[in-house]
């Protein structure tokens, strides 16, 4: 230890041309090529280590970005669903106010399934008898009538749509009051017919069709549907002005894309106009 201190004292005390500085220069001259060779030899190893480190950091960054992207995607989807459902609820509210359906004690329900065997003519909803839903009650969306309840359990129900041959709806034109009955033209389609019109009934493309409600004074012939609910629009008339004319109607509601519906659980004045 003392020898080292003596050497350091002499080294820092002598001039740059001194003996110890000369020894240092000699050693550096000998070792410099060795150090340079070792540095070159080890460069690939250092580069590989750096690449591995950068790769792991990059992978970590990518995983973080993917997680953030997935979270943002979920938020966007959730937001889109909320906007769409809000629009549906607004349309239902507008229909309730326009037709006066609030008195019919509407119950909102979500569509939880659709029949895989009968081409979109039946849907399943998440409300049932526990919410006051019974067989025979009409079902609407914000666009208008879609069908009626045909099966009801405690917490779910089956709705048969107007595109099913079993459903027949007393109807009329909204402007001229021409009466008829809405039924599907052919099973498995969304083409409806306004049946039982006569040659005296003027029917044209573009006319709106709505539910007629109960037309009879007898309580034994009550309609299941309140009057004035939109059903669809006339698309064409075959053989117009004859007793065999066929009045084709397209539903206002898109029956293949149903999310939120309303079941009308009460009849008001027997559903009379």
Automatic annotation (TrEMBL):
Domain Rod shape-determining protein MreC beta-barrel core: 111-264
GO BP annotation list: regulation of cell shape
Gene Ontology terms: cellular component: plasma membrane
Pfam families on file: MreC
Keywords (A to Z) from UniProt: Cell shape
Listed PANTHER family: CELL SHAPE-DETERMINING PROTEIN MREC
Family statement: Belongs to the MreC family.
Name the UniProt record assigns to this protein: Cell shape-determining protein MreC
Classification of source organism: unclassified sequences, metagenomes, ecological metagenomes
């Amino acid at each position: 230890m003392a020898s080292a201190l003596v050497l350091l004292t002499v080294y820092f005390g002598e001039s740059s041309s001194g003996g110890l500085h000369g020894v240092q220069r000699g050693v550096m001259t000998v070792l410099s090529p060795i150090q340079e060779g070792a540095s070159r030899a080890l460069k690939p190893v250092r580069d590989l280590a750096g690449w591995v480190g950068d790769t792991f950091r990059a992978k970590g960054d990518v995983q973080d970005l993917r997680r953030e992207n997935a979270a943002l995607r979920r938020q966007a989807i959730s937001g889109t669903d909320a906007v769409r459902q809000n629009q549906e609820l607004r349309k239902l509210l507008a229909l309730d106010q326009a037709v006066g359906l609030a008195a019919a004690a509407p119950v909102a329900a979500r569509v939880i399934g659709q029949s895989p065997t009968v081409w979109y003519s039946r849907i399943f909803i998440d409300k049932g008898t526990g919410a006051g839903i019974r067989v025979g009650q009409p079902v609407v969306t914000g666009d208008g009538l879609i069908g009626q309840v045909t099966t009801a359990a405690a917490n779910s129900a089956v709705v048969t749509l107007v595109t099913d041959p079993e459903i027949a709806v007393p109807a009329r034109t909204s402007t001229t009051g021409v009466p008829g009955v809405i039924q599907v033209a052919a099973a498995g389609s969304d083409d409806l017919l306004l049946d039982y019109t006569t040659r005296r009934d003027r029917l044209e493309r573009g006319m709106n069709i709505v539910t007629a409600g109960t037309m009879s004074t007898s309580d034994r012939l009550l309609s299941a549907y309140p009057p004035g609910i939109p059903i669809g629009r006339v698309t064409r008339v075959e053989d117009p002005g004859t007793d065999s004319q066929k009045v084709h109607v397209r539903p206002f509601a898109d029956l293949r894309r149903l999310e939120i519906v309303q079941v009308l659980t009460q009849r008001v004045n027997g559903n009379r106009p």
